[in-house]
Amino acid sequence: MARLLLVEDDLTIRAPLVRALRDRGHAVAAASTAMEGLRHTLDDRPDLVVLDLGLPDLDGGELLRMLRAVSAVPVIVATARDDEREIVRLLDAGADDYLVKPFTAAQLDARVRAVLRRGGAERPDGEPVLVVGGLRIDPRARQVTLDGTPVELTPREFDLLHHLAGRPGTVVTKRELLTEVWQIPYGGADKTVDVHLSWLRRKLGENAQQPRYLHTVRGVGVRLAAPGT
């Protein structure tokens, strides 16, 4: 199952495509504007973005440029524009494939699977399960258990915990977290990290005053370690 983001403003196209892709086993989120699509990509980190060009707030080509500044997520441009120069320009700008409307859901699904196969070496399917004390983080299933009990996390909370679990016992700076987890290399607010750490602590049954796994190093960052270490 792939996690897809469909950026398409036309509801008569968006709704049936979402249903059809879900019927083919994908988890599908949808956005109707460029800025909503950018936010979804940064917050939810989908496996692939299907991008229309005729969006109401920004041209999809501009969104592609913005995505490429902060993310390596595969992008399939799906649009009615069939000008060869436009196709070449967008592929050169970082699109992974280009599909001209009208197309069937089966055609789109085949393109999705082909693009994901090409990028298979970069996908997390082969990553090992991480274990830190009673925490077990499975990147393939994107599931976390604590002492055998499932922990329900948002996509961002999972990515944050996964990044820290890959560096157990190491103090990770907020700047690194913003760059690697939020994919914001050009700056950002430490408060964003603090808020998500607070939510994560709550779900792990701890707090900053009585930490078990997440230990704040004031002025530096945060360290994930098994209790007692």
From TrEMBL:
Modified residues (4-aspartylphosphate): 52
PANTHER family membership: DNA-BINDING DUAL TRANSCRIPTIONAL REGULATOR OMPR (PTHR48111:SF4), REGULATOR OF RPOS (PTHR48111)
Domain OmpR/PhoB-type: 127-226
Protein's UniProt keywords contain Lyase: no
Keyword Repressor: no
GO molecular function: phosphorelay response regulator activity; transcription cis-regulatory region binding
GO biological process per UniProt: regulation of DNA-templated transcription
InterPro entries in the cross-refs: CheY-like_superfamily, OmpR/PhoB-type_DNA-bd, Sig_transdc_resp-reg_receiver, WalR-like, WH-like_DNA-bd_sf
DNA-binding region: 127-226
Gene3D superfamilies: 3.40.50.2300, 6.10.250.690, Winged helix-like DNA-binding domain superfamily/Winged helix DNA-binding domain
Residue ranges constituting the Response regulatory domain according to the UniProt record: 3-116
Name of the protein in its database record: DNA-binding response regulator
Naturally occurring in which organism (per UniProt): Micromonospora wenchangensis
GO CC terms: cytosol; protein-DNA complex
Assigned keywords, A-Z: DNA-binding, Phosphoprotein, Transcription, Transcription regulation, Two-component regulatory system
